[in-house]
Every structure is written in structure tokens, then in C-alpha cells.
Amino acid sequence: MAGEATRGPRLTLVLGGARSGKSAYAESLVQAEPAPWIYVATAQGYDDEMRARIADHRARRPAGWETRDAPRDLVGVLGATPPGRPVLVDCLTLWLSNALLDEADLAAKTGALVAACTRHPGPLVLVSNEVGFGIVPDNALARRFRDEAGRLHQRLAAIADRVVLVVAGLPLVVKGE
């Protein structure tokens, strides 16, 4: 499989709101490529509700998926994926939240992620929550998160071959085919 041309775009960014269907849509894009597929998970099961969400995501995926956890070292995990293997990252906003709560240098971390995505041979599908459609948050941390997510999405959309917004389970292609 390594060295084969991919059928889909090299880099796809899938955005949408909570429970919009973005993860299922992104999984379908990756599953259109030859297996085995790599699922890079950024969530951490700190409580029962999040553990249940993680379990639901795992149960939905058929055999052929290899899961790699990357709540913080997303760049390192992406760099260690074998060339030619389809990769899904779900989701960037959880990864960004982890970095923000760790008080990491967000400019450096997001810059390193954009560079890693630029280098990645693909196919690579990135999932993220579009959080900029709502009201202005009432606290500085939430406003910073919203702003950082918007900046990250803009940078990734600029280098992506395809950008898709998922609304009510329906994909709307914003860039590419």
C-alpha cells in the first residue's frame, strides 16, 4: 500500500457542530480508502460521560481500524504513522483544549501541527468542532478557545485539499471536491 496513489484528497478538514455527524462522515471518507485505517483519538476519558462517548465511537467503527491515542502529542503520532495508511484525527478541538489547559505555547503547537499536516503524505482526514457560530462566550478562557480554534481552522483550511462542513448529517463541500 505504501507508495500507492490515494483515491481521495491528501488532506481533508471536516468541520461541524456537536452531534452534526462530522465524525461518521469523516470515518466514511477514510473507509473509502484501502484498510487498515488509523484512528488518532484526542479524547481523554476523565468521567463516565466521556468514557461512554469514546466507547460509542469505538463501537461504531468496523474491524480494520487501529486506534492511537494522542491527547497531547498529535504531531508525534502523525509523524509515526506509516506512509500510505489512511489516517483520521478526531478531534482537533479536544486536542486544542488539552493544550490550552496545559498552558502550552499554542502558537508553537498549532504551527507544528500545520507543518506536520503539510508534510503528511495522506490520506489524512481531520475532524474539528466549528465553535464560531454561537454567541460570544462570557469568559476569557472560552473566548480564547473559540478564537484559537478559529485561527487553527483557517490555517488548516488554507493547506487542505478539501474542506467540508457537516450540518445535520449532511456534508457541504466548502473547498475542493
Automatic annotation (TrEMBL):
It comes from the Bacteria. GTP binds at residues 16-23, 41-43, 58-61, 90. NCBIfam families: PRK05800.1. The active site is at H57. This is Bifunctional adenosylcobalamin biosynthesis protein. It catalyses: adenosylcob(III)inamide + ATP = adenosylcob(III)inamide phosphate + ADP + H(+); adenosylcob(III)inamide + GTP = adenosylcob(III)inamide phosphate + GDP + H(+); adenosylcob(III)inamide phosphate + GTP + H(+) = adenosylcob(III)inamide-GDP + diphosphate. Catalyzes ATP-dependent phosphorylation of adenosylcobinamide and addition of GMP to adenosylcobinamide phosphate. It is an enzyme of class 2 (transferase). Gene3D superfamilies: P-loop containing nucleotide triphosphate hydrolases. Belongs to the CobU/CobP family. One of its GO terms (molecular function) is cobinamide phosphate guanylyltransferase activity. One of its GO terms (biological process) is cobalamin biosynthetic process. Keywords: ATP-binding, Cobalamin biosynthesis, GTP-binding, Kinase, Nucleotide-binding, Transferase. InterPro entries: CobU/CobP, P-loop_NTPase. Pathway: Cofactor biosynthesis; adenosylcobalamin biosynthesis; adenosylcobalamin from cob(II)yrinate a,c-diamide: step 6/7; Cofactor biosynthesis; adenosylcobalamin biosynthesis; adenosylcobalamin from cob(II)yrinate a,c-diamide: step 5/7. Its EC number is 2.7.1.156, 2.7.7.62.
